[in-house]
Design a protein that fits this description.
Blueprint lengths: L1 H10 L16 E4 L2 E3 L6 E5 L2 H10 L5 E5 L8 E6 L10 E3 L3 E6 L13 E6 L4 E5 L4 E2 L5 E2 L1 H4 L2 E3 L5 E2 L7 E5 L6 E2 L24 E6 L10 E9 L2 E13 L4 E5 L7 E6 L1
Parallel strand pairs: 12-14, 16-20
Antiparallel strand pairs: 1-7, 2-6, 3-5, 4-5, 4-7, 8-9, 10-11, 13-20, 14-19, 15-20, 16-17, 17-18, 18-19
Length: about 270
């Protein structure tokens, strides 16, 4: 029973609120008899108690936690260290210490605000702001929206880097054949997929290699417009056509249209 009480005491949340003319309310997490070791505290002072230490922290824009002595010195003062980090982003430096308590502003991610397996990363402990990095196939500030094109697509699974699709229906596609997972994004002067030192075979006698002009988007870009060019007889951008592309987080999907002829192919790489 004693062990359980001690465990609960060490991990319990103690919070208080302090409001002044400059800062909003802050909620602190309490770690009894713990000390966060920081090489250079923001401020090292002596105060009358933990409330004075918390007030000093709230007055310092860089402070997001503080160590305060568990008991006063012979003058009745408590040592107070204002810190620019917390045990969440500095876990290796948190140690048990019978002479110190740690108070730290609660992470804005503690309530797990990101949906659908999104990962929360604090931006500012003071402002309570954070960023969600969405799991593949989801988007939105909180990863609350499923991107339909990241879930509903057709897999193009070829044996080589070239896809001759003169009969494609305009729709969303994902390349997934033999490690060839995305469209090449440079001109291939050999006019063949994998030619000119690009590696791989495929394409056979096909002689008009399609490549993505403008490069691939980032996850944050969402759906972007891009041009597919076909290298042909020494020209890098013959028969250009507009398509849409999205980064789904780990893979790309392309809204492709049918090529005009079997000699026009979409070229891919790993």
């Amino acid at each position: 029973m004693k062990v359980s009480i001690t465990f609960i005491t060490l991990l319990s949340l103690f919070h208080f609120q302090w409001l002044n003319a400059t800062f909003h309310t802050a909620e602190f997490e309490f770690r009894a008899f713990h000390h966060l070791n920081v090489t250079r505290p923001l401020v090292d002072i002596f105060v009358d108690g933990y409330l004075d230490c918390s007030f000093a922290c709230l007055q310092n824009m860089l402070c997001i936690s503080f160590n305060v002595a568990a008991s006063p010195d012979d003058k009745g003062k408590f040592r107070c260290e204002l810190l620019p980090s917390t045990s969440s982003n500095n876990p290796a430096n948190l140690t048990a210490d019978p002479h110190s308590h740690l108070y730290q502003i609660k992470s804005p991610c503690v309530k797990e605000p990101c949906y659908n397996k999104g990962t929360c990363s604090p931006i500012s402990y003071r402002d309570g702001t954070y960023r969600c990095t969405c799991h593949p196939g989801y988007l939105g500030r909180f990863c609350e929206t499923a991107a339909p094109e990241c879930a509903n697509y057709t897999v193009l699974n070829g044996r080589g880097p070239g896809y001759s699709h003169h009969n494609l229906t305009q729709s969303w596609y994902r390349f997934q054949g033999n490690g060839y997972t995305r469209m090449i994004d440079r001109c291939n002067s050999s006019d063949r997929c994998g030619g000119g030192g690009g590696g791989g075979g495929g394409g056979g006698g096909v002689s008009s290699a399609g490549w993505l002009k403008g490069g691939h988007p980032s996850l944050a870009d969402g759906i972007v417009q891009r041009t597919v060019c076909f290298s042909f007889l020494g020209y890098c951008c013959a028969n250009p056509r507009e398509i849409r592309v999205r980064d789904c987080g780990g893979y790309y999907v392309y809204e492709l249209k049918a090529t005009d002829h079997r000699v026009f192919i979409y070229c891919t790489t790993s």
